[in-house]
């Protein structure tokens, strides 16, 4: 129909058209088939969507735009069907970046993005389309943006992640309890930009130990931003240096995926380092 | 006579000093100059018109489709018959059908969970074989992902194809990419990447390098009608045309970009109608007629290398199979449509031609079917047994050398594996080795 439709194959076109729709007064939800293919649209997102309100002195904005796109490892996606590009977008003032960890979160967060008066990029971890099964209310509900969620409380170590990684961290927390007798607080960041540093810092003040994990590459991954902020705000509360467990600084490989991802065993090693420091 | 010459000289001097253009008329020795008001803009210099009318694309008939052989395998235009010898035609047929066999088996293997992903070439084999057979073996190929027949023509072996799909120790790509992302330095086929149309402006650049090197080679760039909507396609065409690059842009218009039909992809007359907009020589061809594809590619190559200018070929064809193993095309097209287009498939058409020539019969067909299937299964069985490459390949080739931070990460994985060996499928991989 004219509400949900195919477009010609052009990511720069899809996003720009979406910006235009929003400026023209319509709610626009632009879909990029895989986050790996979002880069032709990066100019429109960073130079146009993000700066629309600011550069016009608030005369114009494209807040009615939401971009949604599947991201993350899926077991066999390799270089171009596995990427987690949230760090590139976290570097753009003017947009919001949101990542759900399951169906219930997805609905509430997506509706918030759509209704939020700022352009939003919504990354959907594709492995969770089939991998996560939950009860989702049919009624309308939203979940707040820029609010991290403490998914599991704990006292000894703070574990921070988003998307698929939250499930890995919950698994690690279980193993840490069983094998190390450590109780871990697991936090789902949910919104990458603007991010909720208060919740993270509050937890670190309690535990004194922080591990951040993400599939995206180590260097300049979003864990770097979190680590920089936390060491600045909570320096004297830290019992050990902040641990980052991330993808290696390589393109996402195909057959080597089992060695590449920041799985529960690498996260467990990270917790041991925090605790034994 | 002198007076007439003087008159001509005066006219010539007049022409060089006045800004308006002059049309010289008359063939007699006395040359007259009629002042014609012509547009003097830097962007375009054609003619003025005093009639207000818009160019209406719907009024133009579509660019015609060049064809040589009809659906029954008969040469419709004898003068266009390339008269390819029997040996070459048999190779064309065998390559198309071997590709077909390989596609069937590898598609099935994905369904069985043996390989992670696959894309078939059903229906488009003639676009590969027809074009590849008209090029020189060293012409550089930039493909999209549905051009395996080009590799097959050039000699990529079944082992090489299937090893890449398995990402095993024999994969020239070292296990890094999804299946069908082939590449071969020896066969001058640049390794495939998934993003669409990114190869197109690269092809323009490579062609420019060849021009400067004066090596007599051209570049061919394959892409689909969907990829032609990408911004990179525009850059590719415009750069190639303005910088005089010897590149053949070969569009496989197969009717679909996954589920997006051409009616949603463009409103004009396909991709061919865009060519002259960029200043490129353009032709549209029946992509299911292997001889027609061969003829146009051969001619296009000649134009490229002789005149250093790009050529656009739009090969009309139909994607018989699904987009990939991740697609179920029955969700967006009727089975009847596929069946209808399959009756015009390029393999059947070439076979009809061969039979009419007395070069092929049912017995040979059955024999070859069995043999090709057997060949594929043999390669398949070997590939499946091979291990994956040693895990240090994960860290190599990011740069030419391994930088210190990456070396540290490799060391940390080594240490991690030594403490957690039972948690990883290391038995399926070659042993860790940093050499």
From TrEMBL, chain A:
Cofactors, names only: thiamine diphosphate
Protein's name according to its UniProt entry: 2-oxoisovalerate dehydrogenase subunit beta, mitochondrial
Biological role: Together with BCKDHA forms the heterotetrameric E1 subunit of the mitochondrial branched-chain alpha-ketoacid dehydrogenase (BCKD) complex. The BCKD complex catalyzes the multi-step oxidative decarboxylation of alpha-ketoacids derived from the branched-chain amino-acids valine, leucine and isoleucine producing CO2 and acyl-CoA which is subsequently utilized to produce energy. The E1 subunit catalyzes the first step with the decarboxylation of the alpha-ketoacid forming an enzyme-product intermediate.
Enzyme superclass (EC): oxidoreductase
One function term, GO molecular function aspect: branched-chain 2-oxo acid dehydrogenase activity
Domain Transketolase-like pyrimidine-binding per the UniProt entry, residue ranges: 1-131
Annotated source species: Magallana gigas
Recorded GO CC terms: mitochondrial matrix
Record localization: Mitochondrion matrix
A Pfam family hit: Transketolase_C
TrEMBL record, chain B:
Dehydrogenase E1 component domain residues: 94-391
Biased composition (Basic and acidic residues): 411-424
Native source species: Magallana gigas (Pacific oyster)
GO cellular component terms listed in the entry, alphabetical order: mitochondrial matrix
GO process terms (BP): branched-chain amino acid catabolic process
Entry similarity comment: Belongs to the BCKDHA family.
Annotated segments matching region Disordered: 405-435
Alphabetical list of Pfam families matching this protein: E1_dh
Catalysed reactions, as listed in the record: N(6)-[(R)-lipoyl]-L-lysyl-[protein] + 3-methyl-2-oxobutanoate + H(+) = N(6)-[(R)-S(8)-2-methylpropanoyldihydrolipoyl]-L-lysyl-[protein] + CO2
Gene3D superfamilies documented for this protein: 3.40.50.970
Enzyme Commission number(s) of this protein: 1.2.4.4
Key words, A-Z: Metal-binding, Mitochondrion, Oxidoreductase, Potassium, Thiamine pyrophosphate, Transit peptide
Function: The branched-chain alpha-keto dehydrogenase complex catalyzes the overall conversion of alpha-keto acids to acyl-CoA and CO(2). It contains multiple copies of three enzymatic components: branched-chain alpha-keto acid decarboxylase (E1), lipoamide acyltransferase (E2) and lipoamide dehydrogenase (E3).
SUPFAM superfamilies: Thiamin diphosphate-binding fold (THDP-binding) (SSF52518)
Compartment(s) where it occurs, according to its Swiss-Prot or TrEMBL record: Mitochondrion matrix
InterPro entries: Alpha-ketoacid_DH_E1_comp (IPR050771), DH_E1 (IPR001017), THDP-binding (IPR029061)
Protein's UniProt name: 2-oxoisovalerate dehydrogenase subunit alpha
Catalytic class of the enzyme: oxidoreductase
MF-aspect GO terms: branched-chain 2-oxo acid dehydrogenase activity; metal ion binding
Cofactors that this protein relies on: thiamine diphosphate
Feature: compositional bias, Polar residues: 425-435
